[in-house]
């Protein structure tokens, strides 16, 4: 099994096979419109604009599992992202990334790359630790997605090569993308 075996639903309700992205470098992200990390839409759009002509694509999957921070419809999310951040990369249907109803794509991504910790220098890292520790004191030892804007980097052959937590600086992500392009 690899990344190209999965189907997802686009923002129009159509089924899309990820095999259509063979040969591209992908960044897969779970997003939310009402999160402290929401300004990352702007950073992601800049990456997309800078590298899309070199075979780079961002696949965005809104998720409402983290403190109800993406309650809107996919149409409203797409409009919000376009108006506020100029987002032009694909935004897909809302999904769940954890739990019993987690999308099979995310079950696979988490199996391939588990949680490796937050960037402690990020101003929101301690707040995330506080929130997550209340629900699960052992949260650091399971592969679940911890929050919105967790990202997975996929190489041109469909391999999951890196997982970035929302606290990872965009410059670190950009360097890894450039290595794969």
UniProtKB/TrEMBL annotation:
UniProt source species: Herbinix hemicellulosilytica
Thioredoxin domain mapped to chain residues: 1-181
CDD domains listed in its UniProt record: GSH_Peroxidase
Active site: 35
Any GO BP annotation: cellular response to oxidative stress
Superkingdom assignment: Bacteria
Keywords of this entry: Oxidoreductase, Peroxidase
Protein name: Glutathione peroxidase
SUPFAM superfamilies to which the protein is assigned, alphabetical: Thioredoxin-like
Family according to the record: Belongs to the glutathione peroxidase family.
GO MF annotation list: peroxidase activity
PROSITE patterns: GLUTATHIONE_PEROXID_2, GLUTATHIONE_PEROXID_3, THIOREDOXIN_2
């Amino acid at each position: 099994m690899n990344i190209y075996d999965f189907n997802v639903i686009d923002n129009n309700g159509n089924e899309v096979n990820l095999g259509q992205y063979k040969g591209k470098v992908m960044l897969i992200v779970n997003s939310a419109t009402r999160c402290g990390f929401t300004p990352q839409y702007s950073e992601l759009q800049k990456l997309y604009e800078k590298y899309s002509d070199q075979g780079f694509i961002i696949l965005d999957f809104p998720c409402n599992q983290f403190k109800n921070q993406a309650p809107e419809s996919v149409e409203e999310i797409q409009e919000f992202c376009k108006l506020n951040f100029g987002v032009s990369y694909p935004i897909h249907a809302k999904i769940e990334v954890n739990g019993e109803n987690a999308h099979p794509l995310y079950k696979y991504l988490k199996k391939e790359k588990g949680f490796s910790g937050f960037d402690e220098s990020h101003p929101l890292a301690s707040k995330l630790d506080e929130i997550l520790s209340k629900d699960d004191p052992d949260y650091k030892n399971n592969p679940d997605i911890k929050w919105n804007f967790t990202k997975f980097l996929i190489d041109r052959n469909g391999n999951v090569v890196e997982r970035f937590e929302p606290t990872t600086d965009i410059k670190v992500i950009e360097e890894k993308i450039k290595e794969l392009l």
